[in-house]
Design brief:
It is a single chain. By secondary structure, the protein is mainly β. Helices cover about 10% and strands about 30% of the residues. It is elongated and about 45 Å long. It starts with a strand and ends in an 11-residue tail after the last strand.
């Protein structure tokens, strides 16, 4: 999958391929369709507060990918 990644405290971020994360039984995977830049995104990346190789982005819209979970499914 692709992600916007910041490699170090440098404010530059790059889009790169990353591995799909392993999910715990109470987590879901979202196939992202749209993203928005939130002030916290640029504050974390420009202030050197992000850990190395941090994936940037908090606001998104998408669909749930198929998964196995114990989470209740809304009806």
């Amino acid at each position: 999958m692709k992600a916007l990644v910041q490699h170090d405290p440098d404010p530059k971020a790059v889009v790169r391929q990353v591995s799909v994360p392993k999910l715990d039984k109470n987590e879901v995977l979202i196939k992202v369709a749209y993203v928005a830049q939130n002030p916290i995104d640029w504050k974390l990346s420009s202030g050197g507060m992000s850990p190395p190789n941090a994936i940037i982005g908090f606001d998104l819209a998408g669909t749930l990918s198929p998964w196995e979970t114990t989470l209740p499914i809304p009806t």
